[in-house]
Design a protein that fits this description.
The chain is α/β, with parallel strands linked by helices. It has 5 domains: about 130 residues, Rossmann fold, CATH 3.40.50; about 130 residues, Succinyl-CoA synthetase domains (Rossmann fold); about 160 residues, Succinyl-CoA synthetase domains (Rossmann fold, 3-Layer(aba) Sandwich), CATH 3.40.50; about 80 residues, ATP-grasp fold, A domain (Dna Ligase, domain 1), CATH 3.30.1490.20; about 130 residues, 2-Layer Sandwich (D-amino Acid Aminotransferase, Chain A, domain 1), CATH 3.30.470. The protein has 25 helices and 29 strands. The two termini are about 50 Å apart.
Length: about 725
């Protein structure tokens, strides 16, 4: 639905409180009192079938049907069992939106109540916020439609939270932390209105400059990702629950390593979203994002009046991914003119304890006006020499006098009560100011991360036309017909080949003689590998024999592999022995995919081959992925220098690898209804211009719950119990 459908909810001209009460302490009393005390400019209607007369001085009606005027939003402060009947009345009345406070829905397993509520609402064209929420607060609209005791400190940010308790706590904490919010919206169970709806509406709201989100889980993570990529305002997200493992029953290398946190981090980067690590970090980053422009380059300058805080800021900058660089000679020369003899202009710029208002003014203005500088952090330690308010006013005057508006500035004022007063004044002037150098750095790092992620989010994926989806589906269909959810290595490679992935041609042998015939067809030397979906790690089972140069070698290896596999797992079902030509060694890379519950088909790239799960040097992205974005994934790996060439080794063919990653990502999108997990491991990457080879492959299909699938599942469960 269009974002305009939320306007009656978020900027209502009239509100009905259904369940309004005269009893102090009841939610119906608190909500109505907050609206009245907050000077809500619209019409307030009190509704309670058991009350008569007035509620808090407002005429009380027994039903919304008795109200003479129009109602934009109805706040349902009634038990869950009564909401359906009340929603029907609201629909008949022509109410445009429902704010459902009550709990007792999907959070306790009553998804049926939630579904029925949304069904009623959609029948009448109403939007539903909640259920299980605190409500809505908007400073600019003078709307306190919640039972939270405090409105947040006025500001330019908006908070959308899945946790109602957190909304209440953050509204109070905003005053202590000096971080202003125009709006706070509790979303609860998100039966209807969800994050992407609210992000779209807030992106068009003139009173909002940045959007902060607390999320426990997305109902449709891919939709949020796509929405976030289209908005123009910065979004900062605090995701809870990232420690949970992505897939307990994973059957591939990729699935075994796919942690929730890794995938969310990747998805947020693709969406252009900034991440917050904790609640304090959410406040700090929200402050910067709501008040300052993005940092469009990597050159950060720090100006301080103390060497110690300058060093702390330098350390923090490296931790935050924006390490300091020495300023160019011309900028150093310009700055040195304003420094005492013992000061330094290299970066950080040290004014020393002798630096006062004149030095701060000149250096701040000079730094901002120099094209090398992309962002500025200014630190002030109160050493008892200067009035913090005077320094604050000087820095702000220097910013204004520079006439530079496209470079972010954050400040840190360290000291006592006078510095706290200066901090509040500066924030009121639109300059994010913190009580420690590391938080000032973290604030500007959020602005740098936002600019960086926005660039990545703009990267466009172009589909490959030279693929054979029909052939891939035919292979998977044959496996399903046979009652299998695991493709053999040969079948997996045929699917990969249909999408242009450079696989090593492989055949399946079921006898020694057949293995010899296939080896001679491929040409010696060859490799033999066990093929069994009951054996995930072939090497651990002694199921791989390499560099076989004769028929005798092949026969001996065939017998050895079978014996080793049976010793490793006596009841393993053996499909046969794969025979493939030996290929030259290269840098070992793993590619893979999982179907994430929130984001769907998700791609993994990592280093390590058989040691992948030990090294855990992997990175993720939500599919599809362009070659350019795949290159960024490669750069994120800790072992990235191995691919670029170290100790005299030639650089690897990263172009071919990035293209393969991109093609792989199209495959898992096109076949998302079929593929649950997959691996290409190892992928041997050769020197620049020589390409790569997919040596081993695995595809596990989604369960479609046909009779054959059910039988396969029962057999699998029986095997696991044994």
């Amino acid at each position: 639905m269009s974002s305009e459908s939320l306007t009656p909810l978020l900027r209502s001209k009239s509100i009905a409180i259904i369940g309004a009460s005269n009893t102090p302490g009841k939610i119906g009393y608190l909500v109505l009192k907050n609206l009245v005390d907050g000077k809500y400019p619209g019409q307030i209607y009190a509704i309670n079938s058991r009350e008569c007369g007035d509620v808090l001085g407002i005429r009380c009606y027994r039903s919304v049907l008795d109200v003479p005027g129009e109602i934009d939003a109805a706040m349902l402060v009634v038990p869950a069992a009564r909401t359906l009947a009340v929603a029907e009345e609201c629909g008949h009345k022509g109410v445009k939106a429902l704010i459902v406070v009550a709990s007792g829905y999907s959070e306790i397993g009553r998804t049926d109540l939630e579904t029925d509520l949304v069904t009623v609402a959609r029948r009448y064209g109403m939007r539903v916020l909640g259920p299980n929420i605190v409500g809505i607060m908007s400073n600019s609209d003078h709307t306190h439609a919640s039972f939270a005791p405090f409105m947040p400190l006025p500001g330019r940010a908006a908070l959308v939270s899945q946790s109602g308790a957190l909304v209440i706590a953050m509204s109070a904490a905003s005053h202590v932390r000096n971080v202003g919010f125009d709006k706070m919206i509790s979303v609860g169970n998100m039966a209807d209105v969800n994050f992407d709806d609210l992000v779209r509406w807030l992106d068009e709201d003139d009173q909002t400059t940045s959007i902060a989100i607390y999320v426990e889980g997305f109902k449709n993570g891919r939709l949020f990702l796509e929405t976030a990529q289209r908005v123009h305002k910065p979004i900062v997200v605090l995701k809870a629950g990232i420690s949970a493992h992505g897939s307990v029953a994973a059957q591939s290398h990729t699935g075994a390593m796919a942690g929730t946190g890794k995938i969310y981090e990747a998805a947020f980067q693709q969406a252009g979203v900034v991440r917050a690590s904790d609640l304090t970090n959410l406040f700090d980053r929200t402050l910067a994002l709501s008040l300052q422009p993005p940092m469009s380059g990597d050159n950060l300058m720090v100006i301080s009046n103390g060497g110690g805080v300058g060093v702390l800021a330098t350390d923090a900058a490296e931790r935050c991914g924006i390490p300091l660089h020495f300023a160019p000679k011309d900028l150093q020369a310009s700055l040195r003119a304003y420094l005492p003899e013992i000061g330094t202009a290299m970066n950080p710029v040290d004014l020393t304890g002798m630096g006062g208002s004149p030095e701060y003014f000149a250096t701040v203005r000079t730094a901002l006006q120099h094209p090398w500088v992309h962002g500025l952090v200014v630190l002030f330690c109160d050493v008892g020499r200067d009035d913090p308010m005077e320094i604050a006013a000087t820095i702000k005057r220097a910013m204004d006098d520079s006439a530079v508006v496209d470079k972010p500035v954050t400040l840190s004022f360290i000291g006592g009560a006078e510095t706290e007063r200066a901090i509040r004044w500066l924030v009121g002037q639109g300059v994010p100011t913190y009580g420690a150098p590391d938080t000032a750095i973290n604030g500007i790092a959020a602005l740098h991360e936002y600019a960086h992620n926005a660039t990545l989010a703009a990267e466009v994926f172009t589909r490959y036309s030279d693929v054979d989806e029909a052939a891939a589906r035919a292979i998977m269909g044959q496996a399903r017909t046979a009652g299998r959810l695991h493709l053999t290595e040969v079948e997996s490679k045929l699917v990969f080949a249909a999408y242009g992935l450079p696989v090593v041609a492989t055949d399946l042998a079921t006898t020694e003689d057949e293995a010899v015939r296939l080896a001679e067809k491929r040409g010696y030397p060859v490799v033999l590998k066990i093929t069994s979906h009951d054996i995930l790690h072939k090497s651990d089972a002694g199921g791989v024999k390499v560099n076989l140069n004769s028929a005798a070698d092949v026969k001996a290896a065939y017998r050895t592999i079978l014996a080793s596999a049976q010793a490793y797992k006596a009841d393993a079902r053996i499909e046969g022995i794969a025979v493939q030509q030996m290929v030259p060694s290269g840098v070992e890379v793993i590619l893979g995919s999982v179907n994430d519950p929130a984001f769907g088909p998700t791609m993994m790239v990592g280093l390590g081959g058989i040691f992948t799960e030990i090294l855990q040097d992997v990175t993720y992205r939500v599919a599809p992925i362009s070659p350019g974005h795949a290159q960024v994934m490669l750069e994120e790996l800790q072992g990235a220098p191995i691919l670029t060439g170290i100790r005299g080794a030639a650089p690897c063919d990263r172009t071919a690898l990035a293209t393969t990653v991109s093609r792989y990502s199209q495959m898992i999108i096109d076949l998302s209804d079929e593929i649950a997990e997959s691996d290409a491991n190892p992928v041997l990457v050769y020197a620049e211009g020589r390409g790569l080879k997919v040596v081993d492959a695995r595809i596990i299909l989604n369960r479609l719950w046909t009779r054959g699938d059910s039988i396969a599942l029962e057999e699998e469960v029986a095997q696991e119990r044994k």
